[in-house]
């Protein structure tokens, strides 16, 4: 469980940088096993940096979606923002922060995606509905697409693709839009998988304009009604998510070679949740769509092959 210090500026980390990275490694391995396996193929410096970023994002998400979320207030997020400022100033506050401060020093990156993620968590404090997809897109960008922006700074770009004479003076292509698309796709997948769980908390993340388009009401959703209207609505949502996955795929081969495998693995595993929803006849109310660990492991060779040839 995440615990914030009473004042993020009065506490100092009590562990070494290496020990801090170890904590981030353990957290990543616990909550994202298949992604963690992919990071092991990165260089030691990159894998540690990705663990540090993942740990910060996980802990940020837990502020509004974890065991102690009921105690989170706007002031809690204000403290978290101050703690982030301290990390970027080179003054880590708690044991996990030391790794992220070291990562920022080794892989310079903008603070904006981190701040945007905090703003995404803030949206969850006062919003439980999204009228349009444009509104939902902003939320998805803040809570998920920002991860791609943070990670790209660590993963790096493959500059060898600019060896042709006509490309010699061009800067390497930076797949920022594709990184954002992957984050959007992942978050849309989370939303579709968690419709029932969110409904029990009084939340609806599906755009209300889409419910209206398929003549499906909020009352229907809270009752868990599965009929032709619901199936058509879900097919529409799944198609949209898959379009973002397709866009994301186009950017992976621009990443450094040692970063492609974990990204492909994450994309394949997450996109398969959509297929699980379809196999469950779009019942996301009484059962949770998930990809078993053995299926994730079986797909790793596919991800590795795609990383080599695509």
General description of the model:
The chain is an all-alpha fold and 310 residues long. It has helices at residues 17-31, 33-39, 44-65, 74-88, 97-106, 112-126, 133-155, 176-193, 195-200, 208-213, 218-223, 228-252, 257-279, 293-309. The model is unreliable at 5-11 (pLDDT under 50).
What is the structure about, briefly put?
The chain is mainly α. The protein has helices spanning 17-31, 33-39, 44-65, 74-88, 97-106, 112-126, 133-155, 176-193, 195-200, 208-213, 218-223, 228-252, 257-279, 293-309.
Q: Which consecutive residue ranges, at least 5 long each, have pLDDT under 50?
A: 5-11
- Tally the beta strands: 0
Run of helices and strands: HHHHHHHHHHHHHH
Termini distance? 40 Å
Radius of gyration (Å): 20 Å
From the structure above, extract its key features.
single chain, 310 residues, 0% strand
What is this structure's SSE topology?
Blueprint: H1 17-31, H2 33-39, H3 44-65, H4 74-88, H5 97-106, H6 112-126, H7 133-155, H8 176-193, H9 195-200, H10 208-213, H11 218-223, H12 228-252, H13 257-279, H14 293-309
